Amino acid sequence: MRPFEKTKHISKCLELAILLEASANKPGNVNRTTSFKNTRYEHFLASAVAISSSFEYAAERGVLVSRGEIHVRNVGLGRIIGDCTANVNAWQHGGNTLLGTAILLSPIAVAAGMTPVEKNFFKIPKLRENVKLTVESTTPEDAVDAYQAIRIANPGGLGTVPELDIKNTDSVNKIHKEKISLYQIFKIASKYDTVCYEWVNNYPITFDIAYPSFIEQIKKDNDLNMAIVHLFLKILAEYPDTLITRKTSIRKAREVSSMAKEALKLGGLETSRGKKSILELNHKLRKSDNLWNPGTTADITTAALALSILSGYRP
Q1: Residue 315 located in a structural domain
Q2: How many angstroms separate the CA atoms of 151 and 85, rounded?
Q3: Maximum CA pair distance of the chain?
Q4: How many CB atoms are closer than 10 A to CB 13?
Q5: What is the pLDDT of residues 194-252, one digit of tens each?
Q6: Which domain does 79 fall in, by range?
Q7: Does residue 143 fall inside a structural domain?
Q8: Is 238 within the bounds of a domain?
Q9: Do 62 and 113 touch, CB atoms closer than 8 A?
Q10: Considering its fold, how many domains does the chain have in total?
Q11: Residue 220: Cβ within 10 Å count
């Protein structure tokens, strides 16, 4: 596969992952039939298309690293995340649709560019090695660019933190002065944000739990919607959603996780009792005026789908 074809291929894989995740009938999230007040399904479709050029560029940077033409520290991961945010905002008016997804998928796009392709597919272990190298090689410039991207996206529940708060203008000066990398900042944030936790721990939920769970489920039933919904519920059941935590409390997030666990215990979409339980969960999440939206869970679900598609899954 020629470099141009490879980078296009990677961006298509990640774009498809976003489209499939957004289209599944997951409880508490926007999908084909249900919207939030100001964010609808078409906003996610537009975002998926808009962000693909940023992923293609990220893959191009990874290809340059693999050729030895640039060092991995010079990939510009923070700028890539910033470009993702700018492109998404330019193409839709539904607010922050993909910030967490952009943060998770941008290193995967770079790493895929660095990873050899075998019959149009990527070997997941090697891809994971390159993801680790990519995030650990980030710079203070990446941190500043990512801060700007997060401010533009303005994610829900963004409160204040005691160290390097994103709303504090002095944070950028401190980043420059103390040469704090984006990886180091996300290490601090990993205590209260699962997306950042994934970054600094080499994506343990995505690679070790979510990706193999999806592959197992899709092989079992060959029902894409069911596989995505069950994957979403599995992640939510085991990891309280940190977007819900930021907007409400850890107690509420754990309550939602307990309901997701119960829905799976009852069979999920495979049984009438499971379906009823999912409907009840969906109703409860939507009654909260978007405060109980499991957005972080959706981001990790998308990342797992991206790995599946990069490694060969096709709907």
Answers
A1: no
A2: 10
A3: 59
A4: 28
A5: 999 999 999 999 999 999 999 999 999 999 999 999 999 999 999 999 999 999 999 99
A6: 3-310
A7: yes
A8: yes
A9: yes
A10: 1
A11: 12
